[in-house]
Each structure stands twice: as C-alpha cells, then as structure tokens.
Description:
alpha/beta; 29 strands; six-stranded mixed sheet; seven-stranded parallel sheet
Amino acid sequence: MTKILILGGSGILSLDVLNEGLRRSYDITCITRGIRDYRLPRGVNIIHGDVNKLDGVVDGLDNNYDAIFDFLSFDVKGLKYKLDYLATKCKQYFFVSSSVAYSFEDEVITENTKLGNEYWDYGSNKVKCEQFLRDNYKKYGIIFTIIRPYITYGKTRIPFGIIPVNGEYWSLANRIINDKPILLWDNGKAKCTLTNTVDFAKAYIDLVNNPKAYNEAFHITSGEVLTWNEVLQYVGKELKKKPIVFSASTDDIIKVLPEYSGVLLGDKARDRIFDNSKIVDAAPDFRNFKPFAVGIAETIKNYESNPRERTIDYEWDGRIDWAINKLAKKQGIKLDKLKLRFRSSEKVVSFKDKISYYCGRYPTLGRFCNYIRKGLSFFKKILRYFKKKCPDRIKRMVLRKPESDLNMAFHYLGNNCKLCNCDFGNDLKLISIGNNVVIEDNTKFINYRPTAEFFDGIIDNGENQKLRNLGPIDIADNVYICSNVILYPNVKIGKNCLILDGSVITTSIEENSVVMGNPARVIAKIDDWYLNIKNINLKYPWYNKNISHDEIVRQREQYFFEGKQHEY
C-alpha cells in the first residue's frame, strides 16, 4: 500500500489531494494543528502538531513513506527545517511551489518559462525554495517533485484578486448579496486560468511513484481561460445577484490599498495563460476538467449549506468601502452612500463584527483599535504568567465568564448554546462548539496539562521546555452534555449526541450516539433512545394531561412507590 505523509491536510488545496489519495486506498497520515479537524474525513491518520516544531512529533512517524507532501513551506528556512527532519523518512518529496514564481516574459507559460517575480515576495520566496531543493536533493537522498498550482478554487474558496488575505472568501459573496460595489482592477480584462481543486488533486496523486515526475517541476492547470470580469459574473449568477462593479486602474488601487500591490502587479493584473501539456502527459487521470460554471455552482452550494464555512472579514469589508469611496472621489463619481455601509448576509451578527467593520471603514478608528489590541495582547501575556502562578484563581475567573466573552474566547461557538458552570481548561482556543449545544454544570474540559513540562525536567533535564501535552476538543451541532462529564484532549463529538452524567470522554464519539461510563462507551443510538423514552412516557397516567404540577408530583410518587414494601 502506498504510504503518504501530508504536512497540512485540512487546507483548501491539500484536503482534496488527501481525499483523492484515500479514494485510491492510500495510507495517509497528516500533521495538522487540529484547528480544522472537522474537515478531515474518516480513514486518515491524524497527528496533532506544528510542522515548524517537528521535534515534538517526529518520533511518532514511520520511516518509509512513499512520498511527503509539503504544502506549508514558504521560505528556504522553513523548507530546510522540514527536510532536515523528514528527508530520511521518504522516497519522494513533493514541494508545493506556485505558478506566481514565473516571470512575465512568455505569453503562454510552460515549465521552461524563466522563474522570477520581482513584484511579489510570495513568488520570489517560492523560487528560492525551488532552487534550494534542486541544489540539495542529492545531499538529502531524496527524489523531488515541484508542484506549481495557479488559481485553484473548491468547496471553500471563491477565486478573486481583491479578497481577504486570511482566506475568508465568503466576504466577496457577502458584498454581492448585499448589492455592495465590488472593486475590480482595470475593468477585469486580465485573463486567468482556473483549476478546480478536485481536478488538481487527480493530477497531483498521479505523480506519486511516477518516474516522469522524478526531479521535475509541473504546473497543474486546466485549459479554461476567463477574464476576471467573467469570473465575477459567474459568481454573481450562482448567488442570483448581478454584481455591482466599481473599476479603477491597478495603479490607483495599489496607491489606496498597498497590501494588494504584489497580488495585482505580480499576478492578477496580468494575463496568465498556461500550456499544460507536460502534466497531461505525465498524469493519466488529468482529463475532462470541470468547467468553472459547474465548479463555482458547487462552491456556492457548499457555502450556503455550511454556516461554519461562511465567515466574513468585516474589517476588510469596511476597508474596501473606504477605498471605493476614496477612488470614487478621485474619479469624480457620486456613489450611493447606502451601498457603503455595514451589511451582512448572516442572520447572527455580533457587536464585535460591527466594530471590526467600522475599524476598516474609518482608518483613524482602526488605528485606535489597533492600539487597544496591542494593549490586550500585552494583558494576555500577563494573564498567562499569572495562570502559571495561580491556576485555581484563574479557573474561577473562567467559570464566571459571561457567554458573550466566551463567544470571543473559543475557537468557535455556535448559535443557541447553553453553557453552564463549566471548567473550560487553560486554552479556550482549543475548544470548538457547534450550534444548539447544552453543557451542564461541572463539566470539565482537559485541553492542556503541564505534564510534559514536568517530565521533561525529570527525563531530559529540562531541555525541551516548549513540550506541551494538549489537543483540541471539537463538539458538533445538537449535542447535550450532562453534568460532571470530563472531556480529554483530541476528541471529537459528532452531531446529535447525548453524553450522560459522569461520563469520561477519552476517544471521539460517532454522531447520533448516546454514551455513558468511564471510559465512556456507546449504549444506544439517539433515535432508539428517544423512541424508548417516548414509549415509556406514554404509559404514565399523567402524561399529556392538563393538570397542575403539584398533582403531577403526587401522581409520580404514587405510580413509582405506592404498594411497594421497602426494606432498609
């Protein structure tokens, strides 16, 4: 069986590569921080850790992987670090570079096009990584394969140029839905080549153990070429809204939004057309590409059915409104001010979301808020120091946190949740709670323990002070956790689960389960449990009767105890 190690695995591109490998029955392990474990399918081996701190996870890896997929090296230092730790564990090392590494000399780009992008550090750093790999692969004793993706899109990515750098792609859709103007560069005339991540994954996996890929570089691109204006219109069509376009020259845009200088001058303001004959020859499954019109429809449908993925960068949204207003004044264009205000496609909007928007909309306020953020960051450092000194006191503080504060403190906290007097541990960012979740009193979340630091002092004389014994706790939608439950790290509770009182959760729980015990075990399926409770209740004489509570209490006592002899 082909064995693969993926550095990453839950990202937009790496996830579909992982899924394609599983579809071909590969044995796949991924190293991930655990933040988006909810995306990972069954069948993958998960190791929680930081790929830039491999000393904590390398001992748990095998020594004979057919290939390692490196999606997370962005400079030579990071690539060298990973190779130093992992090169001896694989035959073929896949480095994911980028097609923005190419220069602009050729109208149609081939793998022989000169590398070099002086406009964008991201592209130039990838070029340096490629050169390091070519210069040192023999020293490391590996075969390398360089992959240069261009613009990919999939279930959780809407492709566009001026979009949040943190990847909250629904922010663009939010503007279209709410009839807010979309900032387009040069009327969107530049041509781009788009590739669906599912198509990309087929070609990628075809290169594993493929002699045609040994010590070679490939860009994996489809043959579909569209202008950026056409891309925007397709997105609007699937959202059932015609985008309102505000266009300005690239030069004018980057004067107002200098953070997009590299993205535009180094890529999206230029025609980027690719000859993909090399990958087509090497990858037999890279055929019948999904048209963008079909693929983007799937993307929008996935977003609409998954509220967790529909995140919006409201500060970016405000900044775009500010930029459009400034550009319009320069062009002498009068805009409808109602279009440049806070709007959201989501039903639930927090006060924090509105503040974030206004910080982007009004730069002076944004700078003031940045000072506050820096102050809060400093305060958190002090708080972490005192946590070590007086953990019991801090825990009591956490128990008293109002739910509005917890909403910001967790990695994710869904809607319609009831969280009682619980101990959420030392790191709330390691806790993700879905929608419609109830957690009763005295439930304890063990997401971090200082045990690693303690035994480091005994076993390794304190040489590894950064070792941590921690992991995420992920609770899906519609979960009821009764009182006095203990949840250990690296567990996921599936949707529609009931965790009965006193249970100790040490492993993940499948959806639709009722569990109890120490360690907890599944005692029923939720549908069977509910039907049994319903049938029992139908036998009670007071059930569904319009009588007072006191009368119900009297009938209950009579039903359960009258006529029974007690021996004590």
